[in-house]
Amino acid sequence: MTDDRDNFVLIxxxxxxxxxxxxxxxxxxxxxxIDTDVVIQTAEGRTLQEIVDTEGHLVLRAIEERELTQLELxxxxxxxxxxxxxxxxxxxxLHRDGVIIYLNVGYATxxxxxxxxxxxxxxxxxxxTFADVFAERIPLYEQHAELIIDCDGLDQEQVVDAxxxxxxxx
Length: 170
Known about the structure:
The chain is an alpha/beta fold. It has one domain: Rossmann fold. About 50% of the residues lie in helices and about 15% in strands. It has eight helices and five strands. A five-stranded parallel beta sheet has the order 2-3-1-4-5, with helices on both faces. α1 (about 20-30) packs across α8 and α2 (about 35-45) crosses α4. About 40% of the residues are buried. The model has no long low-confidence stretch (mean pLDDT about 95).
């Protein structure tokens, strides 16, 4: 890295492994780790699914934007919620102090991993399928990513290795 940003921000679909990879990457780099879904749930005192069920996916996205734009973190690996990329403000705030890394996982792999759509707290309209969400979000992730890691066929440690090699950090 040639700049002074010291956070690494993981974006991608639900089921891409952002939280798991984030923890492993933080351990490898001796950085702090934070999962922004947990930040939201702690701030709201309820689960993401409860927010979606009672107020809708757009309210969840607004809460997510609020929480992400208020983060002031240094030396962190940040695992974002899958819907973070909808917010230009949130992504700009994350980019200010961090490198945005998109964990690209194919639809077939995600569909196998994500079997709890009704309880996972995915910010989607009631009539949207997981395939609809995938198609809608991929261009957003690609737009915001400074680094894209193709994760299909890689185990968790190999993904961390790929990030480190691409960024020349370990």
